[in-house]
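Please decode residue identities from the backbone states below.
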């Protein structure tokens, strides 16, 4: 057998551990995990234990040359000097990492790189502990060649956890195929200030919807049991309340009371933890003056004691260093390390927060050996459960069968289709007829591949991403002439050609205008040490969203509104398509443009999916997971604010332009025959809410039925309404379907004045409909007793 085939197949390395198992119990796969953990822990030096908690940036840990892919000198030094236990973003490629299609790794090369890294760990270290490789994977593995799905705000717009679980399973398979065992995601931040730069990474403004999406992602990533083939563990981000910083400033302080924390911000994380999430990441921000990376109440009392979390907690990049930096709660780096590990933070993403600082803290008595051992055991336990000691390598021959397959691309298109929200369709302008003679396609996002992908996306090969222009061209026949004029950029105002766009529009039968925002990074952008982009007011890139790009206004930037207004003056039918990462100001468009389609960042198949909707090949059913404000002066404007109801402003309505749950269809649905059945018992109750939904239209379509609850009288102030159940259901034209939801005490509980969960007796109003502001049926649930 050739030497290379020995290495690549892993045959040699499957044999060696079996020979050593008699001497080294931790290498014996037949022993229980806990015995293996304790055996290995007992063999480790203090320095090796500290190193096991360091997760370094991984993209400099391999070398790619004419002879192939291997480990770098930097990896060898990090292993020898620091005894590192984990790597992050080894396969990441983007302008921050300076990895391109040329110097980055193809999927097969990625598998070779991770195999080489694990081979080095087994061959060249004293104990042969494999590395746990963590990868960014919120809407696809952030690596060259991987499939790119809609960003999280688009995923949430599907209101389809079953599809999101399928998508997450696909992401896991692609990540696992090249050696990743941990995917960063889902992001479970509750987004209630769209000025904040990372809104696109969230599932929106509602805790219940986020919780359902988070559970789906975890189940898709991990499966039923951690350690299965083609599965990875998820890392829940960012624990907690990261998305509501004061002034929308990324990473800054948050003032949230415990009741709001428990009712809204903690709830999605609890759902994902109870689904079995393997890892949780702390947030950069502080809450009520305590940094999340040094908060024992969050990491010990809530996460582990209350919820039973048994995975490991990892810092966000450099957040431990922030304790004796921006937060200034520690006077030295060693004190910061001590604060974090005592609070229950196990792993340092950076290698500089713990490392030498943690070793100093241990040596000086700031950190007890037992505390260190607890954190190390959590990491080792996860490595054993993932099978890293027994199956450290991946099969390079299987990569092409798992990454970017036809099946994976089809799921990306379906996710994009289901994420699209039809906001307005005056006069039934949509769907367009494919027999239309001439279409003008205009706008900065009409034919820009990177603008429709969102942040945390790797470089893409030419032709892989289907733009809106490409989608329209593919949808219509040769008898339709397609004219394209960019018109303007997202931000740059020096190279607009609005006149050309207007001239083309005047010759057309219909105009499709594609505007919005962009999170596309370029190689001229500068970055902070955390990876967040630096804002440059003089930059001419399109980037106006994505990590680090907080905004003071939600107006469309550059000459976009001027372009839209000039096109509207032509009198031609106009369809506005928005591709963006946060809700933007659509007031003028809503008042003047007959049809508006929102696609968020729809991923690599987004252009085809948008065309499917525009021409009626797909009947849209997406719903807004976040409200679209009329003004930043309204913020926050989420639908489920606490009582009392808002009154209007002097200048405008207090209601959002488009509310949470809003979305139209090419079909019309009617609701009827509501039945509420309540059965109370000693310890709980069971309430069944059932009703009919009928498709009165001419097309088959999906309807998203939503159930909201109003606690009419409660001992503490509660929301004016709260989503409790939803279901996306396909209903044939002229058909009627019965929808049923079940509620128990868990769904109606509140954090009572005596600081415990309680479901209180009394009346609860049930609101059923197609959106938070589109209620079709009302019922009442009455409880005769309290439930604890």
């Amino acid at each position: 057998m050739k030497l290379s085939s020995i290495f690549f197949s892993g045959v040699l390395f499957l044999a060696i551990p079996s020979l050593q198992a008699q001497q080294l119990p931790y290498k014996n796969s037949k022993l229980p995990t806990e015995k293996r953990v304790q055996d290995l822990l007992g063999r480790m030096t203090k320095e090796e234990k500290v190193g096991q908690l360091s997760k370094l940036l991984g993209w400099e840990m391999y070398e790619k040359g004419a002879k192939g892919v291997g480990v770098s000198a930097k990896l060898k030094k990090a292993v020898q000097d620091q005894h590192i236990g984990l790597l992050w973003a080894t396969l990441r490629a983007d302008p921050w990492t300076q990895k391109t299609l040329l110097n980055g790794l193809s999927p097969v090369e990625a598998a070779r790189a991770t195999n080489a890294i694990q081979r080095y760990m087994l061959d060249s270290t004293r104990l042969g502990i494999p590395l746990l490789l963590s990868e960014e994977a919120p809407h696809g593995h952030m690596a060259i060649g991987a499939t790119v799905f809609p960003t999280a705000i688009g995923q949430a717009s599907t209101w389809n956890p079953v599809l999101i679980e399928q998508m997450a399973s696909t992401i896991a398979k692609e990540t696992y195929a090249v050696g990743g065992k941990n995917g960063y995601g889902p992001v479970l931040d509750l987004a209630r200030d769209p000025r904040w730069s990372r809104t696109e990474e969230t599932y929106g403004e509602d805790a219940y919807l986020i919780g359902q999406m988070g559970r789906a992602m975890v189940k898709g990533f991990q499966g039923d049991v951690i350690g299965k083939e083609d599965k990875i563990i998820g890392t829940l981000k960012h624990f907690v309340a990261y998305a509501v910083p004061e002034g929308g400033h990324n990473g800054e302080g948050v003032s949230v009371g415990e009741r709001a924390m428990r009712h809204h911000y903690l709830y999605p994380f609890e759902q994902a933890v109870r689904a079995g999430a393997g890892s949780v990441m702390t947030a950069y921000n502080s809450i009520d003056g305590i940094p999340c990376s040094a908060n024992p109440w969050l990491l010990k009392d809530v996460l582990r004691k209350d919820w039973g979390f048994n995975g490991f907690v990892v810092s966000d990049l450099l957040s431990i260093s922030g304790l004796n930096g921006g937060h200034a709660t520690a006077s030295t780096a060693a004190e910061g390390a001590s604060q974090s590990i005592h609070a229950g933070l196990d792993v340092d993403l950076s290698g500089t927060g713990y490392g030498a600082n943690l070793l100093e803290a241990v040596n000086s008595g700031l950190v007890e050996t037992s505390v260190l051992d607890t954190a190390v055991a959590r990491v080792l336990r996860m490595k054993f459960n993932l099978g890293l000691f027994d199956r450290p390598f991946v099969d390079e021959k299987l990569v092409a069968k798992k990454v970017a397959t036809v099946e994976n691309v089809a799921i990306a298109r379906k996710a994009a289709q289901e994420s699209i929200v039809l906001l307005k369709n005056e006069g039934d302008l949509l769907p367009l007829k494919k027999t239309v003679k001439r279409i003008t396609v205009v706008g900065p996002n009409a034919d820009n591949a990177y603008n429709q992908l969102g942040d945390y996306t790797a470089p893409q090969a030419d032709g892989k991403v289907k733009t809106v222009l490409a989608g329209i061209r593919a949808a219509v026949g040769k008898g339709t002439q397609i004219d394209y004029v960019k018109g303007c950029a997202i931000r740059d105002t020096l190279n607009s050609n609005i006149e050309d766009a207007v001239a083309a529009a005047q010759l057309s039968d219909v105009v499709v205008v594609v505007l919005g925002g962009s999170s596309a990074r370029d190689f001229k952008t500068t970055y902070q040490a955390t990876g967040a982009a630096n804002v440059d007011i003089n930059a001419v890139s399109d980037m106006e969203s994505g990590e680090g790009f907080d905004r003071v206004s939600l107006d469309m930037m550059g000459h976009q509104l001027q372009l839209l207004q000039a096109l509207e003056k032509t009198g031609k039918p106009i369809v506005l398509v928005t591709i963006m990462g946060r809700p933007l100001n659509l007031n003028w468009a809503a008042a003047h443009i007959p049809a508006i389609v929102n696609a968020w960042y729809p991923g690599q198949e987004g252009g085809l999916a948008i065309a499917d909707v525009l021409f009626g090949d797909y009947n849209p059913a997406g719903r807004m997971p976040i409200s679209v404000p009329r003004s930043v002066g309204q913020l926050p404007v989420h639908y489920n604010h606490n009582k009392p109801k808002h009154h209007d402003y002097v200048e405008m309505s207090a209601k959002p332009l488009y509310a949470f749950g809003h979305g139209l269809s090419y079909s019309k649905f009617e609701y009827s025959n509501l039945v509420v059945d309540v059965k109370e018992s000693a310890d709980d109750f069971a309430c069944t809410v059932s009703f009919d939904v009928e498709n009165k239209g001419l097309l088959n379509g999906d309807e998203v039925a939503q159930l909201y609850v109003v606690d009419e009288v409660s001992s503490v102030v509660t929301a004016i309404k709260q989503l409790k159940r939803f279901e996306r259901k396909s209903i044939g034209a002229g058909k009627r379907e019965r929808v049923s939801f079940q509620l128990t005490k868990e769904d109606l509980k509140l954090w009572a004045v005596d600081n415990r969960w309680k479901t209180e007796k009394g009346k609860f109003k049930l609101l059923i409909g197609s959106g938070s502001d589109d209620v079709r049926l009302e019922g009442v649930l009455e409880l005769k007793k309290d439930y604890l």
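Observation: Residues 107-124 form the longest helix (18 residues).
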